């Protein structure tokens, strides 16, 4: 009985601490700005999450870098790129692209815009702070704050960019560049889904025709410097539950992918974008392409920013069903997943939270 009461008090105290943190609407950056020297207990992760860090034997693993410059050069160059996309999607579930068509000045200004938003006074940012997931523009710290085992050292500005919002709905410090950057990413998305379609042996427009490139959400993340980075994470281990992610990160680094049970660093390369396969694309390809587990480690160096662009139609009410693509299944390779709508998958993902288990298991056929 005494142990149960102690557990209840501990849960109650934690809940109160979480609520007090959320009520400040200042996020993790607010703690840093206030001069915190020791991270609050709500951010401390269990020791086992820091195991399996990449060792010497993993130094040979390099995240594939694919140069898109030769796409329209000739058929041989085009096919070589398709082959590289196929190999990376089947093996790593992630690759980096260079010569992707988005000017470097646009990438840099997008990162500057994110910094400008988060460096505003808290009173100004509070206008956007909410946990209402139906809003198109939201500023918050930790989407799963009240359900995750430990909070992450991260704040986020979330914006739905396709269908496009009204410009005045977007924060002024990054409004213009968000619109321009999103338009460029949408064009790149068409190219990437075309390459992925060809990599599967399908018509180049197959995934686009399935509306995989129709919706776009921007998650602009801010990772303030952490006084005790060995005790917490910037982002907990997870997979992305959308079709595809295009990630822009600054030069501080911290992104890692889980490969062969070891965490591998994804070092920042100037001008590159990182492409992650998402859960729904793994479902569509019947496990041929892999939705990669990844995380972000905390750092002492400085304020890190990144922009994760999720191609998703989960916020668009639609009866459209997604299941393993019929051209990819056979008697020898039967469907491994039941059909689902993007909205159902999104709703399940939100309700499940980050508990360390793949969301895809819920949709797997017995």
Automatic annotation (TrEMBL):
GO terms for molecular function: dioxygenase activity; L-ascorbic acid binding; metal ion binding; oxidoreductase activity, acting on paired donors, with incorporation or reduction of molecular oxygen. Keywords: Iron, Metal-binding, Oxidoreductase, Vitamin C. InterPro entries: DIOX_N, IPNS-like_FE2OG_OXY, IPNS-like_sf, Oxoglu/Fe-dep_dioxygenase_dom. Residues 214-314 form the Fe2OG dioxygenase domain. Gene3D superfamilies: B-lactam Antibiotic, Isopenicillin N Synthase, Chain. PANTHER family: OS03G0690500 PROTEIN, OXIDOREDUCTASE, 2OG-FE II OXYGENASE FAMILY PROTEIN. Belongs to the iron/ascorbate-dependent oxidoreductase family. This is Fe2OG dioxygenase domain-containing protein. It comes from Daucus carota subsp. sativus. The lineage of its organism: Eukaryota, Viridiplantae, Streptophyta, Embryophyta, Tracheophyta.
């Amino acid at each position: 009985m005494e142990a149960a009461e102690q557990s209840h008090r501990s849960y109650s105290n934690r809940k109160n601490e979480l609520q007090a943190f959320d009520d400040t609407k200042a996020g993790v950056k607010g703690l840093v700005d206030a001069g915190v020297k020791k991270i609050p207990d709500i951010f401390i992760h269990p020791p086992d999450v820091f195991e399996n860090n990449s060792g010497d034997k993993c130094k040979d693993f390099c995240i594939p870098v694919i140069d898109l410059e030769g796409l329209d050069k000739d058929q041989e160059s085009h096919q070589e790129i398709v082959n590289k996309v196929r190999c990376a999607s089947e093996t790593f579930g992630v690759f980096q692209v260079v010569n992707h068509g988005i000017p470097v000045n646009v990438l840099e200004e997008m990162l500057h815009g994110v910094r400008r938003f988060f460096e505003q006074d808290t009173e100004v940012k509070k206008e956007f702070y909410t946990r209402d997931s139906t809003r198109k523009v939201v500023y918050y710290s930790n989407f799963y704050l009240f359900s995750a085992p430990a909070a992450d050292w991260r704040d986020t500005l979330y914006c739905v960019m396709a269908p496009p919002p009204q410009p005045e709905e977007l924060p002024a410090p990054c409004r213009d560049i968000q619109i321009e950057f999103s338009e460029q990413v949408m064009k790149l998305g068409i190219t990437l889904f075309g390459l992925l379609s060809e990599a599967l042996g399908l018509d180049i427009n197959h995934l686009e025709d399935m509306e995989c490139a129709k919706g776009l959400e921007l998650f602009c993340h801010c990772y303030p410097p952490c006084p005790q980075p060995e005790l917490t994470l910037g982002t907990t281990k997870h997979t992305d539950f959308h079709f595809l992610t295009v990630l822009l990160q600054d030069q501080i680094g911290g992104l890692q992918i889980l490969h062969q049970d070891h965490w591998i660093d994804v070092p920042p390369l100037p001008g590159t974008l990182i492409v992650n396969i998402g859960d729904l694309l793994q479902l569509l390809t019947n496990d041929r392409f892999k939705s990669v587990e990844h995380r972000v480690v905390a750092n002492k160096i400085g304020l890190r920013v990144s922009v994760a662009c999720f191609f998703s139609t989960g916020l668009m009410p639609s009866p459209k069903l997604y299941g393993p693509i019929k051209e990819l299944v056979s008697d020898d390779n039967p469907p491994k997943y039941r059909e689902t709508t993007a909205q159902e998958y999104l709703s399940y993902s939100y309700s499940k939270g980050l508990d360390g288990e793949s969301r895809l298991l819920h949709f797997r056929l017995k």
